[in-house]
Design goal:
By secondary structure, the chain is α+β, with helices and mostly antiparallel strands. It is built from 18 helices and 30 strands. The strands form eight sheets. It has a seven-stranded mixed beta sheet. Strands 7-17-16-15-8 form a five-stranded mixed beta sheet, covered by helices on one side. A four-stranded mixed beta sheet has the order 18-26-27-30, with helices on both faces. The structure holds dioxothiomolybdenum(VI) ion.
Length: 745
């Protein structure tokens, strides 16, 4: 039997299989399902940042036209599994746990949901939400990072281990005694998830113990499990549908309180409830990249060999829950260095809980590390690429393992050539355009773990020679179905048009959340496995009991939808195998997961970003003129969709570097720019042509395709590249993002 996969070049740039549906508006997103008897929920939120809800006047609201319910902690139905362990009267506390909506009177942050109005139209629900009056007993609260930074502490989980989570290799703070050193502090402000599609859910109770939710989520099985647990109903009685997701970058990895509120409300009013949170509520209800302070110390010999890296980070979290991420991780493995120490702390403030945001902590960490590397290169009078090459980690210095594959040097070379790196004058503020703009070049490195976990896929082949594959993954934008159809086409050796890939439904075979750049790796492996299994079955059936019974399965070739035996005694189209056996369908389900290789190798994707900026010498306005990003993400299944990931990540990185910043007025604990007019994200006019390049070499160990991940590495390191380019243009080192004009004049 042939085991040759993924050598097909023919379909590598396949258009998105759902592209037409998306651009014509036929693709149905979670808030768009036409459900009969639908009602509308609108959340009322707290106007204080700390305290207790004393009373709530909902009388007017309850009598308003079309109103079906006003739900708050005063009248919320007891949800059996949700309120478990959270009864303050019994001395129980929910500290360290996700916010439990409408479960008690405590206010932790400004904008916390305190009531849900359900009405027969959206307009009536919105109007009525304004009639609900809550009175608060205010207490003091803290939202200022700098003012409270001395209260930062190690995460509880880390404290339970003796190390506090500190990492040490070799000697601590070795950089301090090195001949050449850099010591600098860096700040990332709070960045908020602002995809086009707002977080939304429609909850429909089909029976007293059976519910369907149409939900914006990256995690079908996660939402399914959380709802089943909260409402104490069997998991299989919860159906989660997320056929399309209009952009999610970590904001839909968890089940958030508004989702529970919608399910609770639908149960209470006995009708389906749709809840779409508003843009300003996106700032407080679905997580964000936390405000993070970092300090990096780098020490090197005079010829540019690193002798010490110290990396310390403090990130904000909420007062009720500890959110942690891998901010200092990159410093442990990205460069070869004998002495490395890292420390990570969190600072609880009266804000909502942060969450993962593309590249999660690594994006924040890489900004600090790769800006510091740039500073070191200038101190050493060494080209930033040369500095990185001299400290290239040939094996994983953290885990002491060989890399499964690493083409980072090739990335440096390829991208540097493309942007004309070596033609620049490296001296800061030395280059100008004809009309007097300062020109700057900068670069940054990205890396992220190349994951693979377990997933199951099913395939159904019909006698007409068409195939439907199902898997409970989601598609938050990368084009998952397109890549999966290509993988299946390559393994089955049938045209892509014959194959459908269905996702976005929790009743399909199990898959993990779409996150951590691991869907192609994980789900693609399951698709490969199920297609191989289907071919095996077809082979067995083709051999059958007749005169061909002496043919061995290993003698069969599968090509162009046809099975051929070595001795030519078998020559039959796949579909005819079913017809011959009078089978209307052939069904196979297979699970696939990683194995022993995970202990033998270190799996990472790598990227390099090069940026050219123009900076106005008087106003400090920064314009990104060119981006070249080169990724080592293993074998690229689809250059078009993977390239789109790189472009999206670069744009996210430009926003991070130059624009994004959620600002809280600490007097009130309230966001002042919680809308898309004041919270700036890049628009088309801000973005130049972006050159997305792939090394496109198979990883020999990760999975049958040889594909690593590309989502996170397309952003990680990008903000450093922009900041380093701004330094080269202006001679000004801005270490607190975003780099706005006021910091450059
Ligand atoms: Mo991503 S932060 O794993 O959605």
């Amino acid at each position: 039997m042939d085991t040759k996969f993924f050598d097909s070049k023919a379909v590598e740039g396949l258009d998105r299989v759902d592209g037409r549906l998306k651009v014509t508006g036929a693709a149905r997103y979670s808030a768009e399902f036409p459900i009969p008897k639908l009602t509308y929920g609108v959340l009322v939120t707290s106007t204080v940042a700390g305290g207790k809800i004393q009373s709530m006047d909902a009388k007017k609201a309850e009598k308003a036209p079309g109103v079906l319910a006003v739900i708050s902690h005063f009248n919320a139905p007891q949800i059996p599994g949700y309120s478990e362990g959270s009864n303050p009267a019994k001395g129980q506390t929910t500290k360290g746990q996700p916010l439990r909506i409408f479960s008690d009177d405590t206010i932790y942050f400004y904008g916390q949901p305190v009531a849900l109005v359900v009405a027969d139209t959206l307009e009536r629900a919105q109007f009525t939400a304004g009639l609900v009056q809550a009175q608060y007993q205010k207490t003091s609260f803290q939202t200022g990072f700098d003012a409270n930074v001395s209260s930062a502490d190690f995460p509880s989980q880390a404290k339970n281990r003796n190390s506090n989570g500190d990492y040490l290799r070799g000697e601590a703070d070795a950089y301090k005694t090195a001949p050449v050193k850099v010591e600098a502090e860096y700040v990332i402000p709070t960045e908020v998830h602002n995809p086009m599609e707002l977080q939304s859910i429609i909850a429909v109770w089909d029976a007293p113990d059976k519910v369907t939710v149409y939900d914006k989520t990256q995690s079908l099985k996660g939402v399914q499990g959380t709802i089943a647990q909260a409402f104490k109903i069997p998991v299989e009685n919860v159906q989660v549908v997320a056929t399309y997701v209009g952009g999610a970058f970590g904001n839909a990895l968890r089940t958030w309180p508004h989702e529970i509120a919608a399910v609770m409300a639908a149960q209470k009013v006995g009708r389906p409830v749709k809840l779409v949170i508003s843009r300003d509520q996106m700032f407080t209800m679905v997580g964000y990249r936390p405000y993070t302070w970092q300090k990096v110390g780098l020490g090197a010999t005079a010829d540019g060999k690193l002798v010490g890296i110290s990396h310390e980070a403090i990130s904000q979290t909420s007062t009720y829950e500890e959110f942690t991420e891998g901010t200092v991780n990159v410093s442990k493995f990205l460069y070869a260095c004998p002495n490395v120490n890292t420390r990570y702390k969190i600072l609880p403030l009266n804000v909502s809980t942060p969450t993962w945001m593309r590249g999660p902590g690594e994006a924040s960490g890489a900004f600090a590390l790769d800006c510091a590397m740039d500073e070191l290169a200038y101190q050493l009078n060494l080209d930033p690429i040369e500095l990185r090459l001299r400290n290239h980690a040939d094996t994983d210095p953290e885990r002491n393992l060989p890399w499964s594959s690493k083409y980072l040097k090739e990335c440096y070379q390829e991208a540097a050539d493309r942007i004309g790196w070596f033609k620049r004058n490296p001296k800061p503020r030395s280059m100008k355009t004809e009309d007097g703009m300062l020109i700057g070049y900068g670069m940054g490195t990205g890396s992220f773990s190349a994951g693979r976990s377990a997933a199951t896929a099913s395939i159904q082949m019909l006698a007409d020679g068409t195939y439907t594959i199902q898997c409970a993954t989601t598609d938050i934008g990368p084009g998952t179905a397109t890549a999966m159809v290509q993988i299946a086409s390559d393994v089955l050796q049938v045209p892509v048009e014959k194959i459908k890939f269905q996702l976005g439904n929790s009743s399909f075979p199990k898959a993990p959340s779409q996150g951590g750049s691991s869907t192609v790796s994980t789900v693609g492996s399951a698709v490969t496995a199920v297609c191989v299994s289907l071919k095996n079955k077809l082979g067995e059936l083709a051999i059958g009991q007749g005169e061909a019974a002496s043919v061995k399965p290993a003698d069969l070739t599968f090509a162009n939808g046809q099975i051929t035996s070595k001795d030519q005694s078998i020559k039959i189209a796949y579909a005819d195998v079913l017809k011959k056996h009078s089978l209307p369908t052939l069904d196979v389900t297979e699970e696939s997961k990683s194995g022993d290789e995970r202990r033998k190798y270190s799996f990472y994707s790598f990227s390099v970003h090069f940026v050219e900026v123009n900076v106005h010498p008087a106003t400090g306005q920064v314009k990104v003129k060119r981006v070249v990003s080169c990724a080592d993400a293993g074998k690229i299944i689809n250059h078009k969709t993977a390239g789109s990931q790189v472009i999206g990540g670069a744009i996210g990185g430009i926003g991070m570097a130059l624009m994004e910043e959620a600002v809280i007025d600490d007097r009130f604990g309230r966001y002042v720019n919680n809308n898309l007019a004041d919270y700036h994200v890049p628009v088309h006019a801000d973005i130049p042509a972006i050159d997305a390049v792939f090394i496109d070499k198979k990883d020999p160990y990760i999975n049958p395709m040889g594909s690593k991940g590309v989502g996170e590495i397309s952003l990680i390191g990008m903000a450093a590249a922009v900041a380093n380019a701004v330094f080269h243009a202006t001679g000004k080192r801005v270490r607190d993002l975003p780099i706005t004009t006021d910091k450059l004049v």
